[in-house]
Amino acid sequence: MSLSSQLSSDTTNRRRRPGEHTQGARRHSCEDSWEEIQSRRTIRAENEVEANKLVNNYRFGFRKWKSHVTERPFEDRSEVVKELYSELNIIKPHADQFITCGNVLYVLLFGWWVSLVYLVVGALMFATVIGIPYGKLCWKLCCYFLWPFGNTIHEIGNTLRRCCEEAPDCECSVTVEDSSPVLLPSPAEVPAPEVPAPEVPAPAVPDRPLRTPYWHRLSTYVWLLLGYPPLVIIHSLVCFISWILVFTIPVSKMNAQTLSIILLLPPEDVLISTSSHRKHQGYETRALLCCYRAANWYYYKYAVDGINVFAVSILYSHSVSLCGMTKTLVKPFTHTSDLLPLVIVALVIGYVDKENQLVSSDVKFAMAISSIIPLSYYIGMGIASISAQSNFAVGAVVNATFGSITELTFYITALLRGHRATNPCLQEVVKAALTGTLLGCILFIPGICMIIGGLKHQEQRFNSRSAGVSSALLFISVGGVFAPTLFSKAYGNLVCDACSSINATSNSSGPFVCHNCHYDLKNGTLFHDHIEPLVYTVSVLLPAAYVIGLIFTLKTHSHIYNIHVGEVQVSGHHGTVVHWSRWRSLLILIVATVLMSACADLATEHIQPILNQPNISQYFIGVTVLAMVPEIPEIVNGIQFALQNNISLSLEVGSCIAVQVCMLQIPILVLFNAFCDVGFVLVFSDQHMWASIFSVILVNYIFMDGKSDYFQGTALVVVYLILLALYFFAPSPAGC
Q1: Is residue 734 part of a domain?
Q2: Rounded Cα–Cα distance for residues 325 and 327 (Å)
Q3: Rounded to 10 degrees, what is the CA torsion of 451, 452, 457, 462?
Q4: pLDDT band, very low/low/confident/very high, at 305 (cuts 50, 70, 90)
Q5: Distance from C-alpha of 614 to C-alpha of 599, rounded to nearest angstrom
Q6: Based on the domain organization, do 300 and 333 belong to the same domain?
């Protein structure tokens, strides 16, 4: 068919089918819709609260760490995760190999000296004569704790039989065998020989002899006064150490179970078996403790109350009803973090040891800076919990109030201390920290995420259009922040502290060498009449641009957030259990903020010896330690997203922080300086300005094709390290 006949045929078909034009329009509409779908970010969450949290991440910036604010259904978790949460009273039908590296390490770290303590306590109880039954129990537990793996501690007794009669669902086993029982009954209870009397019923399970109640025995009080206290100390110490090590949490559970249950039982009710399948003749039994592995590498996934195990370190006891009996079980709770004791120690030492007699200022500074990590975790979790359960207005207020509280607390404290001590060096350190945060979020966080994601997934794709929007916003932010600096370079007067002639014999018209040159901003009318109004103008425009961005994502273009709960659209959050209520989250936010202020005060008080190091530039300290330590949780966020092949979110993490620094943190510092003059001037050094501008240009070039691999990530990280080298070898700023 020729081209003309084909066109004629198409024209005829259009005349015969008037709806063809409509179908063509629909085709174009579908193409447009497909392009629109490609530009959307599809957010999948388990419920509406989690979906709100993710949307708020886009609106206000990603919060510290990536945790759930609601309880996840246990049945939906993987078998590996379910194993982490299983209790140590479940007998496995097919146990794994017991000789493992973790089990051997347990013997070397804990087993031998715990067994030695039981041996000594057992000898002490034998010496009292009255406590001989407890001495026998201690010697049995001495062998058990030397190698507990595969062995089982059971509870036996009539109490459980009564439990089973009253509560049939209670987990206990009643077995009758022909062989003699472990605990022999009295002669009156031995079954009589067979009598040919058909009317006599079959013998029932033998009852144990009557015994003195537990709390009516003298041996019980001897045990509680002499034997139990040292074991409390030993087991508590093992619990603490093994919990802090995270991967040895089974050891912590085992010791907590022993301390709270087994050692408080009558000694005749505790039976230790060397086989998981042994049947205890004649008596009902219930497994109390059976451990198979001392360590599990997957415990880094362990979470309680929605908080990762690395932020959980305290145990609390609660009472539960077990078959009519009250037992105290130990469960992990989240009132503190692994580093939270460091916060307390840092505050106590910092405010008590004023004269540095116990520790040096360097140690106090390191402890105060490290304390920022757990506090920022709780601040981030509190913000996420409140905003996920609230409307947009409340979420906006909470994020605006507490979103940058970690960094702002340190910056304001440093400016106040520098102003009181007339030390301009701290102001330069704050500017270096702001610039270091920008460089780290623009270069290092995307770079390290691209490297790790590229090594696992080879090549990852992201939406170049959305990345372009973020990059444009970065251009606006960086351009606005450094506008006063460019203005001062163009119109300011260069002032030098000392100038000397190159040729000593030459006259004053010869060339000179000048030192410590800077632009004079205080003298003259340039600063007060031109630069200062420009600074205030920029500080108003940048937050306004941030608000416009929120309106863009909330109202006019809210459709780009296509929220899904599983495979269906969000409908509600009824039945969703939230880990932290709003009031609890608010209380944690307030307490963490107060502690953060105290730690920031200690850090700025003891930073001066660090700044006085002759071989390290103050610029380098600001752009590394002070800038990146608070952002460690964000780096973890980005890496987790990259490993999940979601590089788009990894890139958003760095962009959100950089935008918040420019559009919120810096304007807040300018506003604070307007009400409380601490000498903060929004004029940066040339190195800060050109490093930031070059970083934004480089990132825009990398993001153009919508693809990422480990080579592009390496390029960003290498550039970041080069800039750090520049800061390391740079001369100290003026006033330092």
Answers
A1: no
A2: 6
A3: -60
A4: low
A5: 26
A6: no
Same domain, 335 and 290: no
The rounded Cα 334 to chain-centroid distance in angstroms is: 12
Q: How far is CA 93 from CA 147, 173, 275, in A?
A: 19, 15, 11
**What three-state secondary structure class fits 391?**
coil
- Looking at residue 145, its pLDDT comes to 94
Report the mean per-residue pLDDT for the chain.
Answer: 74
10 Å Cβ neighbour count for 172? 17
Q: Which of 279, 310, 341 is the last residue of a domain?
A: 310
Tokens of 18: 């008037």
List the Cα angle 215/219/223 in 5-degree steps. 95
Largest CA distance in the chain: 138
Residue with tokens 């000498």: 679
Would residue 107 count as lying in a domain?
yes
Is residue 383 assigned to a domain?
yes
Same domain, 354 and 404: yes
Q: Contact 105/86 with Cβ under 8 angstroms? A: no
Query: Does residue 180 have a pLDDT over 50?
Result: no
Please, which residues have CB within 8 angstroms of residue 449's CB and are 6 or more apart in sequence? 638, 639, 641, 642, 647, 650, 651, 653, 713
Contacts of 267 (CB under 8 A, 6+ apart): 133, 134, 136, 137
pTM for this one? 0.65
If one compares 523 and 499, the residue with the highest pLDDT of the two is 499
What's the domain range around 381?
A: 325-501+511-729
d(CA 64, CA 637): 8
125 with 131: CB under 8 angstroms? yes
The answer to the question of residue 531 being in a domain is: yes
Q: What percent of the chain has pLDDT over 70?
A: 65
Helix orientation angle between 464-481 and 686-702, rounded to the nearest 10 degrees: 170
C-alpha closest to that of 691 among 644, 723, 717: 723
Q: Residue 554: what pLDDT? A: 63
**Of 77-86, 314-323, 577-586, 598-607, the least confident:** 314-323
What is the predicted pLDDT for the residue at 372?
82
Q: Which residue has the tokens 């840092």?
A: 346
Q: Exposed, middle or buried by CB within 10 Å (0-12, 13-18, 19+), for 531?
A: buried
What type of residue sits at position 555?
K
pLDDT > 60? residue 56: yes
Are 282 and 348 in the same domain? no
* pLDDT at residue 718, rounded to an integer: 95
Strands 270-273 and 285-290, by their bridges, are unpaired
Number of domains in the chain: 2
Pair 558, 446 in one domain: yes
Dist CA 444 CA 713 (whole Å): 8
**pLDDT greater than 80 at residue 728:** yes
Same-domain pairing of 354 and 235:
no
Specify the DSSP element, H or E, that contains 499.
Answer: strand 498-501
What is the rounded distance in angstroms from the CA atom of residue 476 to the CA atom of residue 319? 58
CATH number of the domain that 357 lies in?
1.20.1420.30
Are 401 and 520 in a shared domain?
yes
Confidence of residue 692 (pLDDT cuts 50, 70, 90): very high
Q: How confident is the model at residue 382 (pLDDT cuts 50, 70, 90)?
A: confident
Given 310, 337, 358, the domain boundary residue is 310
Sign of CA dihedral 515, 519, 522, 526: positive
Closest by CA position to 181, among listed 271, 290, 267, 277: 271
Say if residue 558 is in the same domain as residue 454: yes
